Description:
By secondary structure, this protein is of the alpha+beta class. Helix content is about 20%, strand content about 35%.
Amino acid sequence: MTFLLPSVVxxxxxxxxxxxxxxxxxxxxxxxxxxxxxxxxxxxESRGLSQQQIAKAAGIPRATWTHLESGAANPTLAVLVxxxxxxxxxxxxxxxxPRQPARFLKADELPTRTRGQVAIRKLLPEPLPGLDLxxxxxxxxxxxxxxxxxxxxxxxxxxxxxxxxxxVAGERYTLAEGDVVSFRGDQRHSYFNPGSTTSVAYxxxxxxxxx
Length: 211
């Protein structure tokens, strides 16, 4: 029979609620067991490893790994911890609903805002920790003041179309199509289109690590 354990088992900084199977003597994550096999297989294949190689790294028999990928296994928590360590992921990543292979969004589905005379469109619909990517459209004569970030942040600007002038730290850099400039993101800076046609630029921001 299957019964729920009333406790939460912690592994490092992670915690998962588990259930015990009285017949098999193993553990499975309540409501998420179906995702385990798909995630383990996808993570192994994305690393280019065979079942034998990853089983050895995890310190478990290959047969056990085969059963995990087929969904036939009812692993103990100790086995799940070894699997997560071998794949270098958190336990919750093993148990999460698998992501779609791709996600398509039309331009009008992406968040857009206006700052000054510049239209800004976010290009990361799924937030990535520590990273931001934006597309900026600057009309002729359009200007926008940038927002200084925390010390240690780096910004990267590239011009796709037209001309963009970046002012930072008392210097001015004029970017033509394909040019790139990197700079400290904790300084006051601004963007300007000195041309007579609309300019398009991309800004990538790598935020300083937080601890």
